[in-house]
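Final report, Chapter 2: Outcomes

The project's central promise was a pipeline that accepts a single protein chain and returns its three-dimensional structure in a standardized token representation, suitable for archiving and comparison. That pipeline is now operational. To close this chapter, we reproduce one record exactly as it appears in the project archive, with the input sequence first and the structure output second.
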Amino acid sequence: MCVTAVESRPAGGGTSHVFRAVGELGASPKPSHRPFGARAKAFVALTKPRIIELLLITTVPVMFLAQQGVPDLGLVLVTCIGGYLSAGGANALNMYIDRDIDAVMDRTSQRPLVTGVVSPRECLAFGITLAVVSTLLFGFAVNWLSAWLSLGALLFYVVVYTMILKRRTSQNIVWGGIAGCMPVLIGWSSVTNSMSWAPVVLFLVMFFWTPPHYWPLSMKVKDDYARAGVPMLPVIASNKVVARQIVIYSWVMVAVSLTLTPLGYTGWFYMVVALTAGGWWLWEAHALQNRAKAEVTGVKLKEMRLFHWSITYVSLLFVAVAVDPFLQ
């Protein structure tokens, strides 16, 4: 199913030209001469805090499910801090590797390495430091199973997704999304120091959620990805094809989400939320597909409707995961 029709990197002298541009942007003034406030804000931006909010939404509720009640709040705090540092390190290393394409994409043109507020060497050191600290924090303050899962997620995102898949295949976000599913496993293992079918089901929900969550955004900014030579599916396929893939993944995601209650891990409340939120998701996914089919007649795609709803959906689903144990 791998389809690659776009060059993985800007050809010929394009890459070196972009790196020269990045260097020029950061040359005056030097990063170390920037105001302290701007520098501190830039280092926080390297961690992509808005994305990490979503990761924590999928971590903490699973801890409630694993405990079948309120977990130790100190453990919750340490797990959240460790998760933030781990994901932040992965995001910083991602920006270090992708600094060439970030410079030519409008959506990423204000990232700290592109503007020169942070130097590439500082970014690399920052990312590695966060990776080491987060792994040791998980290992000594939580448990080593959670530590290895956290480190595995970081390495998968940096090496498998960023370095191997992102610039080579339109299925990059499908398999690269595995890293974003790992907080579910980490949340469960932090409480139980073991694995079970419940976190596996929720892992699969997030796995099938990631493509239909991200592809609508990619449809919106596909010109950006095309200019950077990144073969996101909307770059190499028509909106009609992408919308059909979104519908397929959406149906599988909703079906998987409904298996948690028959397996005995959740009760009626979770099932009601999963059915209601899942039904609305499918309505929006099919509506996007219908608009994609009629796009040639002038109908607006409105792809961001599903993107925004996808964040609401996963928030509602995991809140239900956390609340359900108190209602059984």
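Archive annotation: Residues 1-28 have pLDDT under 50 and may be disordered.
This record, like all others produced under the grant, will remain available to the consortium after the project formally closes.
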